[in-house]
Amino acid sequence: MSVLHGINAVTEALKANPEKIERICVERGQKNPRIQAIVELARQNGVRIEFEEKSWLNRKTEGARHQGVLCYAAAMDTFDSEEILQQAKTPGLLVVLDGIEDPHNLGAILRSAEAAGADGVFLPRHRSTSISATVVKASAGAASHVKVARIPNVAQCIEELKKKGFWIVGLDASADQPIWDADFTVPVALILGSEGSGLHRLVREKCDFLVSVPIYGKVGSYNVSVAAGIALYEAIRQRALLGLK
Asked: Can you give the C-alpha Rg of the chain in angstroms?
């Protein structure tokens, strides 16, 4: 992940590629109207804003003249969600992440999504790990190929995907329906929840189906990145039986 600092640099990055900005850090108590304009523009684009002490910004920029603001930009290219949908194959296969916080898990999910030929991965701007160099490394090169879109809100994204004809399948360890009983031969958006608490309540309620990966051993659940790989390959298996790709 690259770090940009200074009013002009952050303003231009925010205007040109707001979807690539992971977060903007502003000096606490800063009253500069140009920085206030950055804050307002960031809010309009759904970019996370954090307020930090001047000493913190000094450390992050190694003493460079930061003018009270810096931003973290994604270490990989991101796409507009509409662009991913327009390029999706038939039937589409998408992955939507609801609060993945471990960069290694995100990297592993991106790798599985790319290997399975998923059309794209939707990642919320808030309550989620950033697309850092650690994520790119953990993806073992897949981050260069899989299409990722940053979205402001998972529940809102689900509603938009439904309008586009996608069925929403949530992966939930407590679901009674096993994953192989779900129909993955139709356009599907697979929803994966956070490592600790799983799917958020509103997201769970918006899913058309909830499915689980059955457990026969003594552990309580699969790691989310492992579960993602299993679910994606169940989709591949079902589609291969019908000659779909």
From this structure: 19
pTM beyond 0.90: the answer is no
Quickly tell me which residue has 């457990």 as its tokens: 215
Which residues does 51 contact at the CB level (< 8 Å), separation at least 6? 25, 26, 27, 28
Helix 7-16 and helix 33-44, axial crossing angle in degrees, nearest 10: 20
Separation of alpha carbons 22 and 135, rounded Å: 13
Write the pLDDT tens digit of every residue in 185-244: 999 999 999 988 899 999 999 999 999 999 999 887 899 999 999 999 999 999 999 888
Classify residue 245 as exposed, middle or buried by CB count within 10 Å of its CB (0-12, 13-18, 19+). exposed
What's the mean pLDDT in 41-65? 92
Strands (E), the chain: 2-5, 21-27, 48-52, 69-73, 93-98, 120-124, 148-151, 167-171, 188-193, 209-211
